Structures are given as C-alpha cells and as structure tokens.
Amino acid sequence: MLEGNVRNELGDPYPPFDLEKIDNDSFRITLALAGFSPDEVEITAEQNQLVVVGRKRDEAGTSERYLHRGIAARPFERRFQLADFIEVRSATFENGLLTIALKREIPEAMKPRKIEIGAPANDGGRLPQIKQQAEA
After folding, report:
1. What average pLDDT does this structure show over 104-114?
2. CATH assignment of 17-57+73-107, given 3.40.1280.10, 1.10.3720.10, 2.60.40.790, 3.90.1180.10?
3. Going by fewer Cβ within 10 Å, which terminus of the chain is more open, N or C?
4. Taking every annotated instance into account, which residue ranges of this chain make up the domain SHSP (predicted)?
C-alpha cells in the first residue's frame, strides 16, 4: 500500500500512527492527535501523496498557567507515500484519533482479464494469406 514504507521527511515520530490492512484492497491509517480538534487538522491528497498537517490555534490571552505541559501541542506535518490506485475514502476524528480510510481502486482497463481461446474458423485451419496485387 505504501511505497518504500512510511517515512517522515525529518525522521520525527510525531504524531504516532497505526497502519492497518483491512483486506486486500482496504487500509486504514490512525493518527493519535490528543489535544487537537478537527478544525486544527488538514488532510490533503494529491497524486500519490497523503499529507496530514496540524496546527494549534494561538492560545495567547488564555488564563491557564501550566505547571507541567506533557501533551504535545506542537505543529506537525506527516506525509504518506501511497502506491498507485490508492484513494482516500473518508476521514473521521473521534476521541483524539484521526482515522483515514483508504481503498485500492484499479481501473477496469488495468485489471487482468482472461482471454478465451476460440475454435479455428471453417477454412480447414489455414491461416489467412495476404495476396499481393499485380502492378498495372
């Protein structure tokens, strides 16, 4: 499904994710995005690239003072290189998990097809011959 496995260009493992194979043509990517809301996450699919970007809204002016802040709220960009014919079907965000459903859709013209072998024509099994016209 993913060409060359999953890579993040900077090697940063954030945010963590799971990659599941549902069946031969269905896959699911789940990213752990605790602290983010759906309006702070953007998903873009272009050609064979899936990009998930997250940016927290500016929290300046809030009255909270953290004694310890262990939940990551830093911006991120996670890229997935998709194989040919993989399409994004849907995305849902629930309980801090972003789930992206993927499906392999091979066009009919690209699918293997069985070619039937026909019986020979009623011409005694001879191959057709090309006759050359006499020059005038």
Report:
1. 83
2. 2.60.40.790
3. C
4. 8-120
- Give the SS3 label for residue 109: helix
Are residues 104 and 85 in contact, defined by beta-carbon separation less than 8 angstroms?
yes
The DSSP line for 38-82 is GGGEEEEEETTEEEEEE-PPP-TT-----S---S----EEEEEEB
Could you give phi then psi for residue 109, rounded to 5 degrees? -65, -20
Residue-level pLDDT at 110: 79
What span, in angstroms and rounded, lies between the C-alpha atoms of 99 and 41? Answer: 12
Please give the order of strands across the beta sheet that includes 49-54: 41-46, 49-54, 76-81
Which pairs count as long-range contacts for 103-111, CB under 8 Å and 24+ apart, including other chains? 103/25, 103/26, 103/27, 104/1, 104/24, 104/25, 104/26, 104/27, 105/25, 110/85
